[in-house]
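Step 1: inspect the first sequence and its tokens.
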Amino acid sequence: AFNGSSDVTIAGNTIGLNESGNAGIGNGVHGIDVLGSDVTIQNNVISANGQNGVHVETSTGVIEGNAIGTNALATAAIGNGRDGVYTRSPSLTIRNNTIAGQVNGVGVNI
């Protein structure tokens, strides 16, 4: 978790999947959790976590090009426990993501 951080970039990671990217080994909380200002989350695979795939409370930022709730190839669902993306930020841009397989939530919860 990044708490009170600014200018955070999280890119190119596999979070919650095994090394092959085809089975979940997620943690019991959020895959990515950012509380602060100005975040960029892009080109990650974020799946099989116990809560939200991405939980963001920031003033600005972008979530783009991620596979959330899928395997590494985005061809099968391996959902997160709650929402794919959860945010309270009206200034956050969310675009061009693949979001699937959420267990007890929705793709994007604003």
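Step 2: inspect the second sequence and its tokens, then contrast the two.
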Amino acid sequence: SHFIKTPREKEAYFRAIHSRLLPKARLLTADLSAILTDASIPLFNNAWIAHNVSNGRPAQEVVDDFKKSAETVSIISCSAYERLLKKCGFEKPAMFFKAFMFCGWITRKG
């Protein structure tokens, strides 16, 4: 859902999924999730840029990709993601995976 820009659209997306699931059905979902004002974000971004450049991508191309991403994705915090799932009728969302800025969640239709 990180390509869905507004909170209202994200909520509609997860409510639509909820409405199609059987009672107590499980949902596994993964999304970009971070607190973008956190001091670690610039460190992460710089490391990611350096990694891409060391693997042969031109630095400007990588920087341009970051700019495009900032315009096309909507990243929310892990706690906001958990609240969103609960608000949309899912029970006991639990993060089962976290790597870099990706979080994986498992939950069940309430």
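Step 3: confirm your contrast with the notes below.
The first strand starts at residue 26 and ends at 32. DSSP finds four helices and three strands in the chain.
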